[in-house]
Amino acid sequence: MDDTATRHVRTLFVSDIHLGTRGCQPDLLLDFLKHHDADTIYLVGDIVDGWRLKAGWYWPQSHNDVVQKLLRKVRKGARVIYVPGNHDEFLRDYVGSNFGGIEIVEEAVHVTAAGQRILVLHGDKFDMVIRHAPWLAKFGDVAYDLAIWLSAHVSRARRRMGLPYWSFSAWSKGKVKRAVNFISAFQDAVVADAERHGVTSVLCGHIHQPAMERIRGVEYINTGDWVESCTAVAEHHDGRLELIRWTSPAHVEATLRPPRRLATAA
Ligand SMILES: [Mn+2]
Question: Which class would CATH give 3-123+200-254?
Fold first, then answer.
């Protein structure tokens, strides 16, 4: 790898890495961090997945490498600010302290080079399931895996019993519709919070849906995640914000070209 291919930006925002889970994509993230340096890095929650680690220790070397890479950036002078999420809520007890130079804060207001004020938060407090039934969310992780497993067995059993076909896809379409409602309710609540704070921009994570769009005059930015979307947000030296998708090592060759920009959220 050529070191000159590293882009220097003013600020990086990364969230929902979920270290400690099999879904995490540490290699793509390491590649991304190798190609991006920043004065300030915001870790916008769910960086380490405490829920999954509690259920069973999973911590391969590559996950360690991500932590080491971030700590190396601190040593090289980057300011790293960690806004805990719900999967790393144990860190909320440490708000105001710092670990290896990483500052832990509840939420932050970032001011860009252009003077734009951005409220930075993870977003789980606007997730009604997490807020009112956290046990359901934890159960949901398991239930989802179980539902996929069950559907395969249910359809086979029904076939064997001569029962009509039960459509998993029809059932999941209903799920998708509910998911869309969930996303818009979440975005509405986040935007309302920005309005309460008197800022015109808000940046969050949590729902794993990268976005950069205007909602009721508020710029709504979601960093996405490093499980599926592999996205991050960068602030350039002129204050311009960019949503970067880093989904294949092909980007190693493409770093000198401007990265693809996402139009809207999925
Ligand atoms: Mn979360």
Answer: alpha beta
